[in-house]
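User: Can you recover a sequence for this backbone? Please restate the input before giving your answer.

Assistant: Of course. Working from this structure:
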């Protein structure tokens, strides 16, 4: 998937196109890594590429299903080890099952967004319980966009350290 066209001017279409671009880029950067490489950290913080993928699946869940819709989703924090609070993928979780979780959460997010307007305000339940002020969907989507941009950039470095691959 290539970057959205520079002729795209509708803010909603542009925002959603960039989110999908980063979602696809994330998956593409994981392609070709062995299971061992997906589960090995190359950084002092200790996170692995597979943990990053699972984290972003739960980011989608937290911000759109729990945050925007106010759904009662469980687990909300399934990407973290309850004792260390670090990202975690269990030994019993396959790379394909984490990829499937990510794809499912992205599809759920797309469905939520397709039925809403950018100016719609998140429900005051779930992530945004009082006294927190619920944000608009536009704010949530821009937050997701910056989170993807940051994490895909981190994954660029990890991938280069793993096997020298650079670029898109």
């Amino acid at each position: 998937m290539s970057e959205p066209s520079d002729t795209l001017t509708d803010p909603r279409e542009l925002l959603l196109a960039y989110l999908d671009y980063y979602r696809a880029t994330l998956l593409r950067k994981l392609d070709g890594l062995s299971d061992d490489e997906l589960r090995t950290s190359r950084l002092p913080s200790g996170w692995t590429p597979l943990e990053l993928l699972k984290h972003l699946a739960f980011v989608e869940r937290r911000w759109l299903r729990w945050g925007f819709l106010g759904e009662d989703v469980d687990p909300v924090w399934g990407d973290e080890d309850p004792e260390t609070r670090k990202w975690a993928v269990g030994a019993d979780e396959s790379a394909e099952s984490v990829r499937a979780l990510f794809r499912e959460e992205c599809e759920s997010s797309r469905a939520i967004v397709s039925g809403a307007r950018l100016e719609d305000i998140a429900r005051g339940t779930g992530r945004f319980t009082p006294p927190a002020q619920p944000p608009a969907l536009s704010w949530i989507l821009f937050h997701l966009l910056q989170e993807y941009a940051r994490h895909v950039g981190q994954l660029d470095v990890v991938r280069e350290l793993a096997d020298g691959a650079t670029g898109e």
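That completes the design. The radius of gyration is 16 Å.
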